[in-house]
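Please decode residue identities from the backbone states below.
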């Protein structure tokens, strides 16, 4: 009986000691987490990126660390600005290289560009981020709900019920920085997925909303340090390409699945070679002709060209080559229309 009591007391003492040790570790981890956030903010400030927030409170005991950052604002040197009503940054206490971001409440991103000034707003969202051991970015996924884009040249907001962005950088040692060939290793994988895009006010559009638009890509060549015209030109001149592994679009009667390669010509205009499996061709070209975007003769020629280039399968889909060169989008040898000039310089 006495031995059993001693054993019980010993187990209780061990349990209390473990709880106390864990509590002490969590307090230390909280201080380290706070210092990490403060150090990160200071590092960004040195790089010209200013991050401010109303307060910093860390909770999450016993298994997580969760930083509450109300009224978060991030300002970039080019004038872009992100305002978040409330942002939470959290992660398990045993893995400092995993982080989750919760964007609670309205968020907005103000973007001045050469093409105009735009604002992206969202009702909220979340993100998962994986960091390398050196602290650099390894991979991440961002999900936004009810995102709306407004700005110059847009008569009304373009809304997407769901927007998902993903990116991943290969592990160190898998990319040869001296390899400038077109077949250079992947330096970045990126994806975008939009659901329920509306309204789409384009003459001759198959429908006034796009049900789904998905793209999975891989960047080949040395990763540009900044998205500037100079760095983009250097990447292109060194043979950089964007491999489109999957491009899906459901837009009214038009449904397309494509893959291929995108690059830039010496004038920094996009050029592409794709293979697409398309349904709803006749309905789409008829809508373009009725809207006056193309002539009835061009509509007949495009439809005939698609039938000549690819025989419809059991579902009515045809597989055709698509190309973009000198800003002309073509189906096989038949030109559809010329895209406006992309001003990057």
């Amino acid at each position: 009986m006495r031995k059993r009591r001693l054993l019980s007391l010993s187990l209780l003492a061990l349990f209390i000691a473990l709880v106390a040790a864990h509590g002490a570790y969590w307090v230390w981890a909280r201080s380290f987490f706070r210092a990490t956030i403060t150090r990160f903010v200071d590092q960004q400030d040195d790089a010209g990126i200013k991050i401010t927030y109303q307060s910093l409170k860390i909770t999450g005991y016993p298994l997580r660390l969760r930083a509450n950052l109300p009224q978060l604002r991030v300002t970039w040197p080019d004038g872009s600005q992100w305002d978040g009503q409330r942002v939470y940054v959290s992660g398990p206490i045993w893995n400092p290289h995993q982080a989750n971001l919760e964007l609670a409440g309205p968020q907005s991103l103000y973007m001045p560009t050469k093409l105009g000034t735009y604002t992206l707003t969202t009702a909220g969202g979340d993100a998962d981020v994986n960091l390398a051991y050196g602290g650099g970015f390894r991979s991440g996924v961002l999900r936004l709900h009810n995102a709306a884009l407004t700005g110059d040249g847009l008569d009304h907001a373009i809304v997407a019920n769901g927007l998902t962005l993903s990116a991943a950088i290969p592990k160190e040692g898998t990319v040869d920085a001296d390899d400038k060939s077109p077949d250079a290793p992947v330096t970045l994988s990126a994806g975008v997925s939009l659901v329920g895009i509306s309204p789409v006010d384009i003459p001759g559009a198959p429908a006034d909303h796009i049900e789904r638009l998905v793209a999975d890509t891989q960047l080949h060549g040395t990763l540009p340090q900044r998205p500037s015209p100079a760095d983009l030109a250097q990447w292109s001149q060194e043979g950089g390409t964007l491999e489109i592994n999957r491009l899906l679009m459901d837009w009214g009667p038009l449904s397309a699945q494509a893959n291929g390669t995108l690059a830039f010509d010496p004038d920094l205009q996009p050029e592409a070679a794709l293979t697409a499996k398309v349904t709803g061709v006749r309905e789409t070209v008829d809508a373009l002709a009725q809207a006056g975007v193309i002539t009835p003769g061009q509509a007949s020629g495009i439809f005939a060209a698609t039938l000549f280039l690819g025989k419809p399968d059991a579902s009515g889909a045809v597989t055709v080559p698509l190309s973009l060169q000198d800003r002309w989008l073509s189906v096989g040898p038949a030109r559809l229309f010329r895209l406006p000039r992309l001003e990057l310089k």
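Observation: The chain has four helices and 17 strands.
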